[in-house]
Amino acid sequence: MTHGAEPVEVGNRLLASGTVGAVHRCRVEWADTDASGHYHNSAVVRYVEAAEAALVRERGVVGYFGAVPRVRYEVEFAAPLWFEQEVTTVLGVERVGTSSMTFGFEVWGEETGGRPRRLAASGRYTVVHVPRGGERVSAPWPAEWVAALTPEQTG
Questions:
Q1: Which distant-in-sequence residues (6+ apart) come within 8 Å of 116 by Cβ?
Q2: Is residue 116 assigned to a domain?
Q3: Which of 5, 44, 111, 112 could form a disulfide with 85 if both were Cys (CB 3.0 to 4.6 A apart)?
Q4: Is residue 114 included in any domain, yes or no?
């Protein structure tokens, strides 16, 4: 389990032992829904990015936002989420490269209105380190960010 992450009954594959990640809980708000009353697909991005912000905050990474544009995003939608339903988002760091990082995520709709808890969406996305100021080109991750966002080595 990772620093700052709470155990998750289902969907914990992303936070297996030795994985860096975070869990974010929220509720589907009216602004997250479309005319049918279930969530709009863009809400998934907000839930996932809230989990990412929690992870960065928990790991003490300073200056991250504004320097990590998304270069790839893929989502598989599995089930609707409904207005006022509780949502659990599980985020895990899958890979840290020289200047890119890939996250995996699962968005779970908690039990509501007789509907069981189930996976609503899952996927992955890649960010690239593009330092603020100067040329807008990718650059290697700062060493302290790599240390904060990769599993702690023991032994």
A1: none
A2: yes
A3: 112
A4: yes
Residue 144 backbone phi and psi in degrees, to 5: -70, -30
pLDDT tens for the chain, 155 residues: list them: 233 334 444 444 555 556 789 999 999 999 999 888 889 999 999 999 999 999 999 999 999 999 999 999 999 999 999 999 999 999 999 999 999 999 999 999 999 888 899 999 999 999 999 998 878 899 999 999 999 999 875 44
* E-only strand ranges, 28-85: 70-77
Q: Do residues 150 and 93 lie in contact, with contact meaning Cβ atoms separated by under 8 Å?
A: yes
The CATH number for 55's domain is 3.10.129.10
**Order of strands, edge to edge, in the sheet holding 70-77?**
21-27, 86-96, 100-109, 118-128, 70-77
Which residue type sits at 139? A
Tell me the residue range of the domain where 56 lies: 12-149
Inter-residue contact 151 to 19 (CB < 8 Å): yes
Contact 45, 72 (CB under 8 A): no
138, part of any domain? yes
Please indicate, yes or no, if residue 5 is contained in any of the structural domains: no
The number of folded domains in the chain is 1
Phi (first) and psi of residue 13, to 5 degrees: -60, -30
